């Protein structure tokens, strides 16, 4: 039996490589997207380094949501799966073999994109190759589940294209896949939290450019598991092996349940503060130079022990232990882990600002914890650029005005939070540049 299943897997691969349509959608289209992105983002340095998550998501999404269901429905229309029913093997292993063959196709297409990006544009290799490849397989699993659901619902190949576009186009346009999140309006950024594409981009991009790799991607991974598993189970439950077999009435209900998984993920992200608008990075903090940093002055700063913007001295071992609970809460606070580094720094600065404006009993210690957390999360050079960007562009990005998860229950107005953010940014930047001593 095992040899037969292996033969079926190899045969599926061979048939796909003989199909012109499969080769065009599986390999040529991803290369065209690569060239298009190379032209659109040609001003980035290094080129395409921060867009590889989007590119790979497009490849996986296209291969899984168009290629897989098109092949399955086409074979069903030709009676292939009806003949499979005559074999002394259950349908499950045959479907699994087909999914594995498709996984090989989408994975090799994605790897081809990475290699061509390096060859044509000099795009750096992933910082974490192992994690990047693991993320690739993980996202492919999720989108294959969506493709299986489309195959179960579609009556013919044109219906596959229609259903696939209903998933593909929204994620490309407003889901953070084709258009970077930072360019989208705030309402679209929040809506993208209800779509798997946003989380797929996050997981894939982390393997390329995030120093900590997949650390901190727990929510994105969980969101993808929920969405992919719900869709895959529904697709398997109502998989049709005969074109003449009508779709069960319950299939649409299960499909709605699978879509409700998207809504559950989006609501969890929204309630957890994970959908704060992302600020643009291009033309923002990445363009801040050392000369601009050196132009910033610190004469107007209040003292660390004065009424406003208090800041504790570096903790002793006993003080660090006493503040351990606060530090743990800050480390796992969702707004601190948003994908955009500029917004992450703004959110953490806002914690110090809220504590200061609320006259919290531990405001000075919380500000020190924020400074330590910023240094732990961001590379020194990047953090200096972001802090300078906040000082020079105080109206950029969004600020947090309410953080009850951290015990800060007062709700100061955003303009006051921004003012304090700038002052704390100066205090932290001055220390990073050696202009201020603790």
Instruction: Indicate the percent of residues in helices.
Output: 55-70%
Number of domain modules: 2
What is the total tally of β strands?
Answer: 0
Number of helices: 18
Instruction: Compute the average pLDDT.
Output: 84
Percent strand equals under 5%
How far the N terminus sits from the C terminus, by CA atoms, comes to 71 Å
**Backbone shape:** elongated
Sketch the major β-sheet.
none
Could you explain how this protein is built, in words?
- The structure is a single chain.
- The chain has 438 residues and is mainly α.
- It folds into 2 domains: 2-271; 285-432, no CATH class.
- Helix content is 66%, strand content 0%.
- The protein is built from 18 helices and no strands.
- Helix 15 packs across helix 17 (380-392).
- It is elongated, with a radius of gyration of 25 Å.
- The mean pLDDT is 84.
Features of the shown structure:
438 residues, mainly alpha, 2 domains, 18 helices, 66% helix
Brief sketch in words of this structure:
By secondary structure, the protein is an all-alpha fold. The chain is built from 18 helices and no strands.
How would you summarize the topology of this molecule?
Blueprint: H1 2-18, H2 20-40, H3 52-77, H4 80-84, H5 91-121, H6 129-153, H7 157-174, H8 186-192, H9 196-209, H10 218-237, H11 249-271, H12 290-294, H13 317-322, H14 324-331, H15 341-357, H16 363-377, H17 380-392, H18 414-432
Helix pairs in contact: 1-5, 2-3, 2-5, 3-5, 3-6, 3-7, 3-9, 5-6, 6-9, 6-10, 9-10, 10-11, 14-16, 15-16, 15-17, 15-18, 17-18
